[in-house]
Design brief:
With 290 residues, this protein is of the alpha/beta class. It folds into two domains: 217 residues, Rossmann fold (3-Layer(aba) Sandwich), CATH 3.40.50; 66 residues, Alpha-Beta Plaits (2-Layer Sandwich). It contains nine helices and 13 strands.
Length: 290
């Protein structure tokens, strides 16, 4: 059974359709990246799933809820720009968050101390949040989102505003957390999605245009190619290559000509024949995918 099922979800703001008839589902124990450019509808979808927005139409069903109607006990949510009380310490904020999630004072205190250690900011537990760096705030935000041990963790652009060190720290933490809970996060950076997600949902103008695993999508869209490297006169040889009947496109990069063709086997034979007959000074010929 799927952990989350979304059916024909739409959201309209005045005359703008931000989300258009979106359907998807995923199972427990997976990490899913909702990827697309700014304005594609990622944040709107996540806010609907978190219960912060009502959809114009469609249904969201979180299974394994034991008959309850309030999904908030089962999800953790980190917005793109989390807001903190700057006068609170990190530990005070987690105690506050834990009690909002209906933990007792003792439970909240115990979980707060564990999470401060886990996200790597235990040394700053009694420091005012206003003094925290961006990476520290993001890790504190993740801690508050998981203090009640949710089944599903939803994060909106969790690393987009961080410096390289903070980005790496948060990605490593997400890699650990996906072993314990299902994660759905949005990003516009494909390399982040490629690094830690099991599935991708590609969103464009409010619609899902592709979905599946990284490997599945890579196999679907990768193109066979041939690379020829030359010691010099690369442009001269590229011109010769483009005159061959089987070649559809080519470009040069670092003294190498990258070639695509409708039939890569025919193209390879034609290139090797021309190279032998005309004594091309190629230093390397290899197959590739792009």
């Amino acid at each position: 059974m799927a952990l989350l099922s979304v059916t024909n979800l739409s959201k309209k703001y005045d005359n703008h359709l931000a989300v258009n008839n979106v359907s998807f589902e995923f199972h427990s124990g997976s990490c899913i990246a909702l990827i697309g450019p700014n304005g594609a509808g990622k944040t709107t979808i996540l806010r609907i799933l978190a219960g912060l927005l009502k959809p114009t139409s469609g249904n969201v069903k979180l299974n394994q809820m034991n008959g309850t109607k309030d999904i908030r006990a089962f999800i953790g949510y980190l917005p793109q720009h989390p807001v903190f009380f700057s006068w609170m310490t990190g530990r005070e904020f987690l105690l506050y968050s834990g009690q909002l999630a209906h933990l007792s004072k003792d439970e909240a205190a115990s979980e707060a101390d564990k999470l401060l250690e886990r996200v790597g900011i235990a040394d700053a537990r009694n420091k005012r949040i206003g003094k925290y760096s961006g990476g520290m705030k993001q890790r504190l935000g993740i801690a508050q989102a998981i203090i009640h041990k949710p089944k599903l963790l939803i994060m909106d652009e969790p690393v987009s505003s961080l410096d390289p060190i903070g980005r790496r720290e948060v990605l490593n933490l997400m890699e650990e957390l996906k072993e314990e809970m299902t994660i759905l996060f949005s990003t516009h950076i494909l390399t982040d999605a490629d690094e830690i997600s099991d599935e991708l949902l590609l969103l464009h103008e409010g619609e899902i245009v592709e979905e599946g695993s990284i490997n599945k999508l890579r196999q679907k869209y990768q193109t066979a190619a041939i690379e020829l490297a030359f010691a010099h006169n690369t442009a001269f040889y590229q011109d010769k290559i483009l005159r061959l009947s089987s070649i559809t496109n080519s470009y040069t990069e670092r003294e190498a000509v990258h070639i695509t063709a409708s039939d890569i086997s025919v193209a390879r034979q034609e290139i090797l024949k021309a190279a032998a007959e005309e004594n091309w000074r190629a230093t390397e010929i290899s197959d590739a995918v792009i």
